[in-house]
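User: Quick sanity check before I run a bigger batch. Here is a single chain. Can you write out its predicted 3D structure?
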Amino acid sequence: MSVLIIALVWGRLVPHHGTFFGLIGAGLAVALREPLLSIAGRIAIFAGRIYDAGDRVQIGKSSGDVIDIGFFYTRLLEIGNWIHGDQYSGRILQFPNAQIFGSGVFNYTRDFQYIWDEVALNVTYGSNLEAASQIMIEVGKRYTADFLGGAHAQLRRMQQYFLVPDIELEPQVYAHVTTNWVGLTLRYVVDPKKRRAASTYLYRKIFEEVTRRDDIEIGTDTMEITYKKASQSTRRSA
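Assistant: Done. Predicted structure follows.
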């Protein structure tokens, strides 16, 4: 109330009322910039379906599950930071809604509730690559069998609204060669909130199958030196 009275008094003293109230308006716009942007951010979040409560998102360098969306702030249950495997750290992160205008918003679960993840297995050159690859694919299929049909349905539904290409959802194994081993990588879809549990299950089952075979050997960071003893004829000529 006192601020309004002071403004009216000064308004009478200043000959150019338009200039005066223009300055007042500019000052208020600067002072209220962040709150107004946060309200605009809340409207954009709702109207643009950027994220909703329960979604897993990453904004800037912060990631977590959305637990509350207010007029001014969004609250996340944080994942990551010093915790590995996209699991909860226990902290609640609060940031102004205005932050969505200056940062990319990555939503893990908005229209397609799965992400792709990978587990890697390194085997020696002499290993049976075909058998190792088949083991990884079979284990991947066993894990994804319960929800792969739903993932296909979500992908088809998303393709009705967005220009999304046909993407392979079945588990796939890719190979690359290094100086020490042949690397096999299993690519599969998973619920983003079960990523660590999924990789643990896959590694356990893959190692169980691999260790039963004699034609597959795990590759390690070791160096194999082959020494050939020179023949007598070579030593004589030297």
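The chain has two domains: 32-107, 115-210.

User: Great, the batch can go ahead then.
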